[in-house]
TrEMBL record, chain A:
Protein name per its UniProtKB record: Serine/threonine-protein phosphatase 2A 55 kDa regulatory subunit B
Family membership: Belongs to the phosphatase 2A regulatory subunit B family.
UniProt region (Disordered), positions on chain: 22-41, 420-441
Alphabetized PROSITE patterns for the sequence: PR55_1, PR55_2
Transmembrane region(s): none
Superkingdom as given in the UniProt entry: Eukaryota
Encoding gene per record: PPP2R2D
Keywords carried by this UniProt record: Repeat, WD repeat
TrEMBL record, chain B:
Residue span of region Disordered: 1-22, 106-141
Domain annotation SERTA: ranges: 30-77
InterPro entries: E2F-SERTA_domain_protein (IPR052262), SERTA_dom (IPR009263)
Protein name as catalogued: Cell division cycle associated 4
Species of the source: Felis catus (Cat)
TM spans (from-to): none
UniProt-listed PANTHER family: CELL DIVISION CYCLE ASSOCIATED PROTEIN 4/SERTA DOMAIN-CONTAINING PROTEIN 2, CELL DIVISION CYCLE-ASSOCIATED PROTEIN 4
């Protein structure tokens, strides 16, 4: 059933052929390699091999007045990258499909256009607790494609749904018992029989809920992750992780439970969880205390005892009352290879080697200039913002969001990083994104922005990277930006 | 927002030796900052009780922060339960310092702000510098701050900084009454199984302010019904 919901027609950029201009971002000398604490990035683009990001499209309303329901709350490419799904606070899912590449325009890449829109979750009311259950879509995860239809899991705080998205482009004509307009024919008037034939029709995309996995979570679901066996998936809330079979909705297995007997002793919650991309018995979950636990489901039914425990020792010199809060991990993602995982805490992203539990192998500062503002960010609750992170297809680059509609890309090989901005001002077709820089103090150079001028309402929490190509989707409040690398 | 000319208590804020711009209080002491952080945290824990189920992660992190402060203050010997009678007055003073703490300070550009140093006892607290928050008061980003402050005057009189463990224990009935007034849901305070309720135990009986609010509500309803 195709639900209602506003399609995200957008000020899509038309792709033009022709020679593209030189990279604007290469004027400045590159920053010194290595991790630079402080302002975001230097002049050289990151992403390996002189990757230069360009604006491709933007979806969503231009209106300054943003309706709460239109705020995008999750973004995810499917396994092939041809489909891009977004979920919003209003419980809607919008799926974009990449158009076929046009042979006559070799320099252009396929655009993403609306493919399907449907209402996934509705607001509910828990009568027992007298509380509303938000319809906001917390996560979308695609299933690998096995036939013509596409399947995805979408979840709000309490309920996970499996949606089937299928195309219909043919219809049968020439029925015997009814006319073309559906009226029943008088049987006595039928003198001959015919075989109905399939005729093409305008493409119709239908979304229908195939499974509803409900009533298994007392607390708010923060993660879902499809297993590499393609049969099971996990869902994690603040205190528990459940394992489901995609075919079975009335039963799930609890595999992690950190709820203390006495809730007064609660000091730590689960913040994210993910299955290993290749080992179907392995998953990880992160906590609000900055730790990651890797669990092997073969060891026991209830994985309360971890196989590996990842935690970086605290730096005593930077300890403050906010240390724990900023160490809380908001996202954990395995690399495509399965060798590494990446965690995002408030100020940094860390890459961990699964074979080394004592400390991360890389730490990248996202916006270190905020460290001196933590009290204020605590006051206005920004310190609790949960940023996501993602890997590039080859695992050589990683990306995460920040404030002021900035997002950060880190090249793990060249050790260079760059700060880019998702804004309508930079939305000329194929325009190269100019690197941004935040001024931490002292004299502000031209084109730099001072920390005090950052807009903390413009936060980029959700980003996604095409699984194979250098195409990224960045959610900025109610707008979805799509950037591509410049065709070399 | 706060009037510029709002007086501070001069005896406690003696550490502002550098004075500062007239009308603009100088850097608050570490103790004052820590107390402000504690108050801010307690207010946050109470404000997370809304129509939608509160965010457990956020509540746990705030509660842990309160616990940390409490531990340090216990070691310092400065931890004390505020007597109910004084509750009406003292929190307001501390609220002022919260505003000082987060005041935008363009004049103080370049200085670090609010560095709450290592809470290890015995270590002399560094002299904290003033805070160029730079979050422009007119910006939306301060929305949460404004909301906190607005609620402070409505709700804080009923609250005392009790022990942290009690934050997770059963909710005091006076809290329910206050909640009913604020949200219009009579008797609708939620504590489901396993859902922690956050409120400090009130050594004090329900505040008179709360009762007068209820009285006003009843009075208003009476008027409406009669018309």
């Amino acid at each position: 059933m195709a639900g209602e919901g506003r399609a995200r027609g957008g000020a899509g950029a038309g792709l033009r052929a022709g020679v593209l201009g030189g990279g604007a971002g290469r004027e400045r000398a590159p920053d010194a390699p290595g991790v630079s604490a402080g302002a975001g990035g230097g002049g050289c683009p990151a992403g390996g091999n002189d990757l230069q990001w360009c604006f491709s499209q933007v979806k969503g309303a231009i209106d300054e007045d943003v309706a709460e329901a239109d705020i995008i709350s999750t973004v995810e490419f499917n396994y092939s990258g041809d489909l891009l799904a977004t979920g919003d606070k209003g419980g809607r899912v919008v799926i974009f499909q990449r158009e076929q590449e046009n042979k006559s325009r070799p320099h252009s890449r396929g655009e993403y256009n609306v493919y399907s829109t449907f209402q996934s979750h509705e607001p509910e009311f828990d009568y027992l607790k007298s509380l509303e259950i938000e319809e906001k879509i917390n996560k979308i995860r695609w299933l690998p494609q096995q036939n013509a239809a596409h399947f995805l899991l979408s979840t709000n705080d309490k309920t996970i749904k499996l949606w089937k998205i299928s195309e219909r482009d043919k219809r049968a004509e020439g029925y015997n018992l009814k006319d073309e307009d559906g009226r029943l024919r008088d049987p006595f008037r039928i003198t001959a029989l015919r075989v109905p034939i399939l005729k093409p029709m305008d493409l119709m995309v239908e979304a229908s809920p195939r499974r509803i996995f409900a009533n298994a979570h007392t607390y708010h679901i923060n993660s879902i992750s499809v297993n590499s066996d393609h049969e099971t998936y996990l869902s994690a809330d603040d205190l528990r992780i459940n394992l489901w079979h995609l075919e079975i909705t009335d039963r799930s297995f609890n595999i992690v439970d950190i709820k203390p007997v006495n809730m007064e002793e609660l000091t730590e919650v689960i913040t994210a969880a993910e299955f290993h991309p290749h080992q179907c018995n392995v998953f990880v979950y992160s906590s609000s205390k900055g730790t990651i636990r890797l669990c092997d489901m073969r060891s026991s039914a209830l994985c309360d005892r971890h196989s590996k425990f990842f935690e970086e020792p605290e730096d005593p010199s930077s300890r403050s009352f906010f240390s724990e809060i900023i160490s809380s991990i908001s996202d954990v993602r395995f690399s495509h290879s399965g060798r590494y995982m990446m965690t995002r805490d408030y100020l940094s992203v860390k890459v961990w080697d699964l074979n080394m539990e004592s400390r991360p192998v890389e730490t990248h500062q996202v916006h270190e200039y905020l460290r001196s503002k933590l009290c204020s960010l605590y006051e206005n609750d920004c310190i609790f913002d949960k940023f996501e992170c993602c890997w590039g297809g080859s695992d050589s680059a990683i990306m995460t969001g920040s404030y002021n509609n900035f997002f950060r890309m880190f090249d793990r090989n060249t050790r260079r990083d760059v700060t880019l901005e998702a804004s309508r001002e930079n939305s000329k077709p194929r325009a190269s994104l100019k690197p941004r820089k935040v001024c931490t103090g002292g004299k502000r150079k031209k084109d730099e922005i001072s920390v005090d001028s950052l807009d903390f309402n413009k936060k980029i929490l959700h980003t996604a990277w095409h699984p194979a190509e250098n195409i990224i989707a960045v959610a900025a409040t109610n707008n979805l930006y799509i950037f591509q690398d410049k065709v070399n | 927002m706060f009037a510029r000319g709002l007086k501070r208590k001069s005896s406690e804020d003696a550490e502002d030796a550098d004075g500062g711009v007239a009308g603009l209080p100088a850097a608050p002491s570490y103790t004052l900052q820590r107390q402000s952080l504690l108050d801010m945290s307690l207010v946050k824990l109470q404000l997370c009780h809304m129509l939608v189920e509160p965010n457990l992660c956020r509540s746990v992190l705030i509660a842990n922060t309160v616990r940390q402060i409490q531990e340090e203050m216990t070691q310092d010997g400065t931890w004390r339960v505020v007597a109910p009678q004084a509750a009406g007055r003292a929190p307001l003073d501390r609220l002022v310092s919260t505003e000082i703490l987060c005041r935008s300070g363009r004049e103080q550009e370049g200085e670090g702000d609010c560095p709450l140093p290592d809470p290890a006892p015995g270590q002399a607290p560094r002299r904290p510098q003033s805070s160029p928050w730079g979050l422009d008061g007119s910006r939306e980003g301060r929305g949460g701050f404004q909301k906190s402050l607005d609620h402070i005057f409505e709700t804080l009189e009923n609250k005392t900084p009790g022990s942290v463990e009690e934050l997770f224990s059963d909710v005091d009935s006076s809290y329910y009454d206050l909640d009913a007034v604020l949200t219009g849901m009579v008797g609708g305070a939620p504590t489901g199984p396993g859902l922690p309720a956050f409120a400090p135990t009130a050594a004090a009986p329900p505040s008179s302010t709360c009762r007068s609010d209820l009285g006003e509500l009843e009075h208003t309803v009476e008027i409406l019904v009669e018309t």
